[in-house]
UniProtKB/TrEMBL annotation:
Name of this protein: Flavodoxin
SUPFAM superfamilies given in the database record: Flavoproteins
Annotated family: Belongs to the flavodoxin family.
Source superkingdom: Bacteria
InterPro entries according to UniProt: Flavodoxin, Flavodoxin/NO_synth, Flavodoxin_CS, Flavodoxin_lc, Flavoprotein-like_sf
Function: Low-potential electron donor to a number of redox enzymes.
Keywords annotated in UniProt: Electron transport, Flavoprotein, FMN, Transport
Length: 177
C-alpha cells in the first residue's frame, strides 16, 4: 500500500504531468496523483505523508474560479475546507510558475498553499534552493529558499526532470523512506 498521497490543482494539465513524474520516480511508496477537484478532504486522512502541487495563475493566484479558471481547484478546495487539520502530517510542496512573464509574483500560489498547510498544522519538508531562477519577488520564498520544488515549464522545461529527480531523492530521505 502507498505511504505517500499526491494531490494537485491544475489549470492546463502541466501540474498533473509533474505530479505523475513525481509518482513515477517515487515508485510504489506513492499513490496515483489525484486532482483536488475530484476528492473529498477525507482523502488526506489515508496518508501521514502528502505531496501537494499547484500552478500559479496570473498575478500570483492559486488556480480556481476566482482566478478565471473554469474548473474548481485549490482555491475552492481550501475555501470549502477551512477547518482541515493536517496535524501529524508531513507535507512536501511543489509549484509551477513563469519567472519571465511574472517575475514579481513568481510561484506565489505555492506560497499560498504553504501558508494554508502550515496553519493547518502540517510539518513541511522539501525546501528548494533559489539557484538557477531569475525573478524579482516570490511569496514562496522563506529563509532564502523556496518552500518546495519550483518548476518553470515555460522557460526551463529542459530542467524539469532533473529537478524532480533531485527533489524526490531529497524528500524521500526527509520522509524517512
Amino acid at each position: 500500500m502507498a505511504q505517500v498521497g499526491i494531490f494537485f490543482g491544475t489549470d492546463t494539465g502541466s501540474t498533473r504531468k509533474i505530479a505523475k513524474m513525481i509518482q513515477q520516480k517515487m515508485g510504489d511508496v506513492a499513490a496515483k496523483p489525484l486532482n483536488v477537484n475530484r476528492i473529498e478532504a477525507s482523502a488526506f486522512d489515508e496518508y501521514s505523508m502528502l505531496i501537494l502541487g499547484t500552478p500559479t495563475l496570473g498575478s500570483g493566484m492559486l488556480p480556481g474560479i476566482e482566478a478565471d479558471c473554469e474548473m474548481e481547484s485549490w482555491a475552492e478546495f481550501l475555501d470549502a475546507n477551512p477547518e482541515l487539520s493536517l496535524e501529524g502530517k508531513t507535507v512536501a510542496l511543489f509549484g509551477l510558475g513563469d519567472q519571465v512573464s511574472y517575475p514579481d509574483e513568481f510561484v506565489d500560489g505555492l506560497g499560498e498553499l504553504y501558508d494554508f498547510v502550515v496553519e493547518a498544522g502540517a510539518t513541511v519538508i522539501g525546501s528548494w534552493p533559489l539557484d538557477g531562477y531569475e525573478f524579482n519577488e516570490s511569496g514562496a520564498v522563506d529563509e532564502d529558499k523556496f518552500v518546495g520544488l519550483v518548476i518553470d515549464k515555460d522557460n526551463q522545461s529542459s530542467l524539469s526532470e532533473q529537478r524532480v529527480s533531485h527533489w524526490v531523492e531529497q524528500i524521500s530521505s526527509e520522509f524517512g523512506l
